[in-house]
């Protein structure tokens, strides 16, 4: 069974994905990146190059380097929009006899379909090399607003590249599919796709069987590159102010600024400020000049605020066209590298007052969705599994918040970590906290905080009838089982009597995204404080059980321990008991260590007094 | 077979199909969770994997620092300023890798992170990487 490719054929970047070891995954090109520029060129030596290599030589060979060809695929040369686009190109174009566009590369003329086929062929060859097998079938994505002729052209490009194109699906549909959003009946989804050079918004209506595009909108020239340009402009301005030199007229300096700006933009996605450090950027009569500026995220946001605003205005307009309100939208999906900019995410969240789906890499999400669609189609035609089943296996959910139980001292002991893929099961043995404890109460918690009381209690029950035993001896097996629908079953079993008690909790995973985000944020906010509290309680628990065992040992040892040692240990027990009441973790820990050392002395004395006893005991053991 | 029998067989088959599907889902979820754990383990490993490589870069930084110290104030022109900026770039790179300088001046002697030397010339900056010792600081201890 050969693999199928899911391909996101983009205006500026293309990606491919396949199901590898049962999981959808983006594949790297031969050059080692999952992102391949949709660029084709003929070099000066007449060699055809595609992807990153073609992009690298673009500056030196602009006339023979074809980019953004997706803007013309399946469209007529006379189309006013096409006319507008044609003016922005560095390569030659003309109208074909059938009215479509042709581009010149080297000394030959090509259709956009042929150029797209070259991009697809490169992806095909690289995938075959990576996976070590021939690839025949593919699912290719296209923008939701592509008309019939554009879709047919996309399909034709795939066929020229040697693919059997199973289907051409909409990019937003693929993105929604990656998140498994097509499982619920009748919901409205907004896909916000902010790429390198274009911005698209789509409103979808999904049911488990169908995805309908209700409306689309977009900006043909708005993307990550504009964000980079804003940083470049700012750097040029600052430098001019400080040095009186205009870097924008120095192509070498501009190239370094471009790289520096992009790096800064990416860094500001995770850091609050960054530095653009470009020594020897240029020189004048007084010698070399160096560029070093700090750029904070707040400054960057200010520089790009209108770009973000423009995208949001477009979303608003698209909703209005369909006479829909923000509140009608149940899910938002982020697509495209620019959605990694924090201010963009924030703006979308603020506009809809809802947390968008962003856990899958927004640059890969469309290709991954295409790979999933491909696998579903394949499984269906091969009769391997019905569409519904393959979907329910490929699109498993993850647990949004950790699940745990309350243990001694009010600590939240996590049983299943957040982000665990469900269905899953986890079992752990617990014990009693007091001598002859007849029952244990199992309190099921949901959340990330260390202390039980700060989390949500989603269920509780009591397991009783535990036979009298010293603390710590009974073995209570607690198991958490979360099924594929998020229904949690918690069971507690006393291993001695096999007595079992359980609780079934439905809809616990069904918290709204806002509630989940709020709980996660609180956990982050209180992380240090919680850790300290937990450490204190754990130290107290250790001290407590040490006091208990020491007292027990002393009692059992009776007069086998010298009065001196006994008094000394008793004093230490008292000291530990006293600090244990306080809140000083370090003090409790140090007194615990002291008592541990002291108790070893008792052990040593006991052994000294009964050396002859050691032998037979060992013998007994061996006979068994 | 009568209808009842067929009915029963169908029910059994449906039940079995459900069980198999659930088993399939669980097997896949287990695999994904295992992979996540492995990724975490590898991530932890990678955090320190560059240690040796970075340790070998430190002498270059030492020499940069020495060179900077030895240049007289009046010789510090625009060319040298640019070189100093490259040194800063180097330092920022190390910082981004989780490398931080061990503070020594005025601190208590801590043998976990410091090594005592006798002469001032023997002093050398020490570094931690992601909280773990990369190279101890050589310091002169004053009582």
From TrEMBL, chain A:
Annotated SUPFAM superfamilies: Actin-like ATPase domain (SSF53067), Heat shock protein 70kD (HSP70), C-terminal subdomain (SSF100934), Heat shock protein 70kD (HSP70), peptide-binding domain (SSF100920)
Induction: By stress conditions e.g. heat shock.
InterPro entries: ATPase_NBD, Chaperone_DnaK, Heat_shock_70_CS, HSP70_C_sf, HSP70_peptide-bd_sf, Hsp_70_fam
Gene3D superfamilies registered for this protein in UniProt: 1.20.1270.10, 3.30.420.40, Actin, Chain A, domain 4, Substrate Binding Domain Of DNAk, Chain A, domain 1
An example molecular function term from Gene Ontology annotations: unfolded protein binding
Domain of life: Bacteria
Positions carrying Phosphothreonine: 198
Alphabetic keyword roster: ATP-binding, Chaperone, Nucleotide-binding, Phosphoprotein, Stress response
PANTHER family: HEAT SHOCK PROTEIN 70KDA
Sequence similarity: Belongs to the heat shock protein 70 family.
Function description: Acts as a chaperone.
Protein name, per record: Chaperone protein DnaK
Gene source species: Candidatus Nealsonbacteria bacterium RIFCSPLOWO2_01_FULL_43_32
Gene of this entry: dnaK
From TrEMBL, chain B:
Protein name, entry field: Protein GrpE
SUPFAM superfamilies (alphabetical): Coiled-coil domain of nucleotide exchange factor GrpE, Head domain of nucleotide exchange factor GrpE
Job description of the protein: Participates actively in the response to hyperosmotic and heat shock by preventing the aggregation of stress-denatured proteins, in association with DnaK and GrpE. It is the nucleotide exchange factor for DnaK and may function as a thermosensor. Unfolded proteins bind initially to DnaJ; upon interaction with the DnaJ-bound protein, DnaK hydrolyzes its bound ATP, resulting in the formation of a stable complex. GrpE releases ADP from DnaK; ATP binding to DnaK triggers the release of the substrate protein, thus completing the reaction cycle.
Amino-acid biosynthesis in keyword set: no
One Gene Ontology term, aspect cellular component: cytoplasm
Organism of origin: Candidatus Nealsonbacteria bacterium RIFCSPLOWO2_01_FULL_43_32
Family: Belongs to the GrpE family.
Domain of life: Bacteria
Gene Ontology molecular-function annotations: adenyl-nucleotide exchange factor activity; protein homodimerization activity; protein-folding chaperone binding; unfolded protein binding
Alphabetical GO biological process terms: protein folding
Keyword Chaperone recorded: yes
UniProt keyword terms in alphabetical order: Chaperone, Cytoplasm, Stress response
Subunit structure: Homodimer.
Locations listed in the record: Cytoplasm
């Amino acid at each position: 069974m050969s693999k199928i490719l899911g391909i996101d054929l983009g205006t500026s970047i293309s990606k491919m994905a396949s199901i590898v070891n049962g999981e959808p995954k983006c594949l790297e090109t031969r050059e080692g990146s999952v992102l391949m520029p949709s660029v084709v060129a003929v070099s000066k030596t007449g060699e055809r190059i595609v992807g990153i290599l073609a992009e690298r030589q673009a500056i030196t060979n602009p006339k023979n380097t074809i980019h953004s060809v997706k803007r013309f695929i399946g469209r007529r040369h006379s189309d006013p929009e096409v006319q507008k686009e044609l003016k922005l190109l560095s390569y030659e174009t003309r109208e074909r006899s059938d009215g479509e566009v042709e581009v010149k590369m080297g000394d030959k003329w090509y259709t956009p379909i042929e150029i797209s086929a070259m991009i697809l062929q490169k992806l095909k060859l690289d995938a075959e090399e990576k996976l070590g097998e021939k690839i025949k079938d593919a699912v290719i994505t296209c923008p939701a607003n592509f008309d019939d002729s554009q879709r047919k052209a996309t399909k034709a490009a795939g066929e020229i590249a040697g693919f059997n194109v199973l289907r051409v699906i909409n990019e937003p549909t693929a993105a929604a599919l990656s998140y498994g959003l097509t499982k619920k009946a009748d919901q409205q989804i907004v896909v916000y796709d902010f790429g390198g050079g274009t911005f698209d918004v789509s409103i979808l209506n999904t049911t488990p069987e169908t995805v309908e595009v209700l409306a689309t909108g977009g900006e043909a020239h708005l993307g990550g590159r504009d964000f980079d340009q804003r940083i470049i402009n700012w750097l040029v301005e600052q430098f001019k102010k400080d040095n009186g030199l205009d870097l924008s007229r120095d192509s070498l300096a501009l190239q370094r600024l471009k790289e520096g700006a992009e790096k800064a933009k990416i860094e500001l996605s995770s850091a609050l400020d960054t530095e653009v450090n470009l020594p020897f950027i240029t020189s004048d009569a007084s010698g070399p000049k160096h560029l070093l500026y700090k750029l904070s995220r707040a400054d960057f946001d200010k520089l790009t605020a209108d770009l973000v605003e423009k995208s949001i205005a477009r979303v608003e307009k698209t909703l209005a066209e369909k006479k829909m309100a923000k509140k009608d939208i149940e899910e938002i999906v982020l697509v495209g590298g620019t959605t990694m900019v924090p201010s963009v995410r924030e703006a979308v969240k603020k506009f809809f007052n809802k947390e968008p789906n962003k856990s899958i890499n927004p640059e890969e999400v469309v290709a991954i969705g295409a790979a999933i669609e491909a696998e579903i189609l394949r499984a269906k035609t091969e009769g391997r599994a019905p569409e519904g089943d393959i979907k329910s296996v490929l699109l498993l959910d993850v647990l949004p918040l950790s699940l745990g139980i309350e243990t001694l001292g009010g600590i939240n002991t996590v049983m299943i970590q957040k982000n665990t893929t469900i269905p899953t099961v986890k079992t752990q043995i617990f014990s009693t906290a007091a001598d002859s404890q007849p029952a244990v109460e199992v309190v099921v918690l949901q959340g990330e905080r260390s202390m039980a009381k700060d989390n949500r209690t989603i269920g509780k029950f009591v397991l009783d009838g535990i036979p009298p035993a010293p603390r710590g001896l009974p073995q209570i097996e607690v198991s958490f089982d979360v099924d594929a629908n998020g229904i949690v079953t918690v069971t507690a079993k006393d291993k001695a009597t096999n007595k079992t008690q359980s609780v079934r909790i439905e809809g616990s995973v069904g918290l709204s995204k806002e509630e989940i985000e709020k709980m996660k944020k609180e956990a982050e906010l209180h992380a240090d404080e919680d850790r300290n509290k937990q450490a204190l309680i754990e130290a107290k628990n250790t001290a407590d059980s040490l006091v208990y065992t020491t007292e027990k040992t002393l009692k059992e040892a009776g007069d086998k321990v010298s009065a001196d040692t006994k008094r000394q240990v008793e004093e230490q027990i008292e000291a530990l008991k006293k600090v244990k009441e306080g809140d000083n973790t370090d003090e409790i820990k140090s007194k615990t260590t002291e008592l541990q050392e002291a108790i070893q002395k008792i052990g040593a004395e006991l052994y000294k007094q009964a050396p002859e006893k050691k032998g037979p005991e060992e013998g007994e053991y061996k006979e068994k | 077979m009568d209808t009842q029998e067929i009915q029963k067989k169908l029910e059994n088959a449906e039940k079995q199909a459900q069980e198999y599907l659930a088993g399939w889902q669980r097997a896949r979820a287990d695999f994904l969770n295992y992979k996540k754990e492995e990724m975490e383990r590898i991530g932890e490993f990678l955090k320190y994997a560059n240690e040796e490589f970075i340790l070998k870069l430190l002498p270059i930084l030492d020499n940069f620092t020495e060179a900077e110290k030895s240049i007289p104030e009046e010789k510090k022109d625009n060319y040298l300023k640019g070189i100093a900026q490259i040194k800063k770039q180097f330092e920022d790179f190390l910082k981004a890798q989780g490398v931080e300088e061990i503070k020594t001046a005025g601190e208590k002697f801590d043998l976990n992170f410091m090594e005592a030397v006798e002469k001032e010339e023997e002093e050398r900056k020490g570094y931690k990487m992601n909280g773990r010792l990369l190279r101890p600081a050589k310091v002169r201890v004053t009582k």
